[in-house]
Description:
By secondary structure, the protein is of the alpha/beta class.
Amino acid sequence: MSQGPLDPDRSMWDLIAVELRRQRRLRGMSGAALARLVGRDRSIVSRIESGTIPLQLDHAEIIDREWSLERLFTRLVKFAKERKDDEWRLGDLAEQEARATRVRLWEVGLVPGLLQTPDYARAVFSVGLVRDLSEAVETRLARQTAVFDREQPPEVSVILNWVALEQPVGSPAIMYAQLKHLLELGDLPHVNVRVLEKSTGVHVGYDGMLELLTVDSRDIAYADAPHGGGLVTDPKEVEAFQVRYDRIGHIAAPVGPSRAVIQRAMETYQ
């Protein structure tokens, strides 16, 4: 991913990348040596110093301790993570989806955007604060194209809450076409769609939607927040989302029974 030149005067993460390179060179240490110090491979150091990935807190603590920096990088990483106006330069969710080799989705009340039909997406956007409805729908469809129309599309696993099947969005015809689309996507060899049925009761999934992406052989997450979602890169935080997704998956119906649930829901919209 092209990131552009680092700008330590404007970005805390860029400052960390530049300062890490400077401190390493002051000590006459190679990138490979620093990688061994933090227990990772050489490419990790190169990507941190180029601004491609952020320095992780546990690595910052090791560097501070071994280089006697009195928690310099530990503090910088904490400050960077707290600055909402200085997010690490991951790019947006759509960019990461377009590069992902694996996509895992959980949705509480709606069909996920990557699986929505144009009419369903339009109905969803029409009840929000979207200024240009057509543009919003086109953007959503472009996300889908970038994921599903690739020469080597990612493995996609989707878990839907039963609410997404029973909550009407638009007309019955729109819902029928949407559920039919889910079944068609589920026929693809790299896509599986499962349903969490009403009988499961309250569960950890009600904390909100989440999306897990495998990009460049590492996992990142996207989760809802009160004022908009955000990408999560810290390994410990991502692991917590993975655990939540796994717990949801443990109680979801298998693919076959889930397909039957979707078919039954379709009948209610005929």
